[in-house]
């Protein structure tokens, strides 16, 4: 565990961040302990009619630098969601994906067997031998600390655009009025092959030229994540006996989502959650976590911690890949807990298909032989469902499947005329 000194350094100004990001090898100085300020009656969290942008900026102020012993009511989660952590860590295999490149056939079969066993049960494994530059991974993690330490007004310049995933959010207070997660997030889209680097453009265009170096760090990081995702797709093909290239080609033109999670220390960690219980609606998640720990997976009714392994990245199957495997591989419930003393950072790269691709399992092989578990759908529909109609939780895919039969048509009927 990294011991975080408790001094409260001055908040770095964006230009100093730019210099540090340009150095691309940052030693994050400890973030100040961000504690909640009990909201005054004026912080009235978003109701259906209230202006959400206004509520968001008010609620965002809740993550303040003042010490309070109690967390505000909207951050308190139901007991069942916030059940205590199991003492037994989850035995997640660390798979050496370097074997896909070095011709080690025995190693390749061992890796495929490890992935098959993990994905058919709890859907999580870790990878080493991934080839992601350690200095780049460190710069991406520390860049998150730099961003989230900025004054609120600067972070709000990247405020999330309603109905999209991109942007800065504080506790999702612009979207939800209860069960607020104890986190701040910064999310942005990634796809390659564009005329100019989309992540660099996002940072410079949203936060200003000072943030271009930070954008370059995340541009490079996302490019590495895309390459690793395609390598993992090859391994998933092999482990499922699916024709070579089926999944890799499906994601060649992927349009993914990068999300930086920042979890401040919390005065009552047992009553709230950094990220509530959910299955990722996306296809595959590559999670780089710092060494504080907090990710937990629900297995046999217990919340089992996933220990951070230095240099390794956590991989988990999402709903979209569960459908692509016709249910053979599982998208499983997981959550993130917080603690009293240390901030925690995690970077989640969510691999998503191009919006209009039809999510359909291969018709051949063992996957194709079984009866279809899920209807065809597009990622655009599932994404829209999670952003406009349903808070991703423990039953997202089932709720989505039901919505598919009438939701899009109703939504279209309700949509204002385009003419
Ligand atoms: C499509 C998505 C929705 C969420 C981000 C993501 O890209 C994949 C994970 C989803 C999420 C993290 C699942 C838990 C609930 C959620 C609201 C959150 O806590 O952030 C979800 C994300 C969202 O912004 O809707
Ligand atoms: O921060 C973590 O460990 C998990 C976050 C997560 O599950 C998510 O953002 O989907
Ligand atoms: Fe997740």
From TrEMBL:
Biased composition (Low complexity): 14-41
Keywords: Iron, Metal-binding, Oxidoreductase
Keyword Cell division: no
Catalyzed chemical reaction(s): gibberellin A12 + 2 2-oxoglutarate + 3 O2 + H(+) = gibberellin A9 + 2 succinate + 3 CO2 + 2 H2O; gibberellin A53 + 2 2-oxoglutarate + 3 O2 + H(+) = gibberellin A20 + 2 succinate + 3 CO2 + 2 H2O
Gene3D superfamilies, sorted: B-lactam Antibiotic, Isopenicillin N Synthase, Chain
One GO BP annotation of this record: response to flooding
Region spans: Disordered: 1-41
GO molecular function: dioxygenase activity; metal ion binding
A Pfam family that the UniProt record links to this protein: 2OG-FeII_Oxy
The Fe2OG dioxygenase domain, residue ranges: 253-353
SUPFAM superfamilies given in the database record: Clavaminate synthase-like (SSF51197)
Entry cofactors: L-ascorbate
Coiled coil: none
Family assignment from sequence similarity: Belongs to the iron/ascorbate-dependent oxidoreductase family.
Protein name per UniProt: Fe2OG dioxygenase domain-containing protein
Organism taxonomic ancestry: Eukaryota, Viridiplantae, Streptophyta, Embryophyta, Tracheophyta
């Amino acid at each position: 565990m990294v011991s975080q000194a408790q001094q409260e350094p001055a908040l770095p100004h964006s230009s100093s961040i730019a210099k540090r990001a340009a150095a691309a090898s940052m030693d994050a100085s400890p973030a100040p302990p961000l504690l909640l300020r009990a909201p005054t009656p004026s912080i009235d969290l978003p109701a259906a009619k209230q202006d959400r942008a206004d509520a968001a900026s008010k609620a965002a102020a809740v993550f303040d630098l003042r010490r309070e012993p109690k967390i505000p009511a909207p951050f308190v989660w139901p007991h069942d969601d916030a059940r205590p952590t199991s003492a037994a860590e989850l035995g997640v295999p660390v798979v050496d994906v370097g074997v896909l490149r070095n011709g080690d056939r025995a190693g390749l079969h061992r890796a495929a067997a490890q992935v098959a066993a993990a994905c058919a049960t709890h859907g999580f494994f870790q990878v080493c031998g991934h080839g992601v530059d350690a200095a780049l991974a460190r710069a991406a993690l520390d860049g998150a600390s730099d961003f989230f330490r900025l004054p609120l007004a600067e972070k709000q310049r990247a405020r999330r655009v309603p109905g999209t995933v991109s942007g800065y959010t504080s506790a999702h207070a612009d979207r939800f009025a209860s069960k607020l997660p104890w986190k701040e997030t910064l999310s942005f889209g990634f796809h390659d092959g564009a005329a100019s680097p989309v992540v660099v453009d996002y940072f410079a265009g949203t936060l200003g030229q000072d943030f271009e170096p930070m954008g370059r760090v995340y541009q490079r990081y996302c490019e590495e994540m895309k390459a690793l995702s395609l390598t993992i797709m090859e391994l998933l093909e092999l482990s499922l006996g699916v024709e070579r290239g089926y999944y890799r080609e499906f994601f060649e033109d992927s349009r993914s989502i990068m999300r930086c999670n920042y979890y401040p220390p919390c005065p009552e960690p047992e009553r709230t959650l950094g990220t509530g219980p959910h299955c990722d609606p996306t296809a595959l998640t590559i999670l780089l976590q710092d060494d504080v720990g907090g990710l937990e997976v629900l297995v046999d009714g217990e919340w089992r911690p996933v220990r951070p392994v230095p240099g390794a990245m956590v991989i988990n199957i999402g709903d979209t890949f569960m459908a692509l495997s016709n249910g053979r591989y599982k998208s499983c419930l997981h959550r993130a807990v917080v603690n009293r003393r240390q901030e925690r950072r995690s970077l989640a790269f969510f691999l998503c298909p191009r919006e209009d691709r039809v999510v359909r399992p291969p018709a051949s092989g063992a996957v194709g032989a079984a009866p279809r578990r899920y209807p065809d759908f597009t990622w655009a529909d599932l994404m829209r469902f999670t952003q406009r109609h349903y808070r991703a939780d423990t039953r997202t895919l089932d709720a989505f499947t039901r919505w598919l039969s009438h939701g899009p048509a109703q939504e279209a009927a309700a949509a204002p005329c385009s003419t």
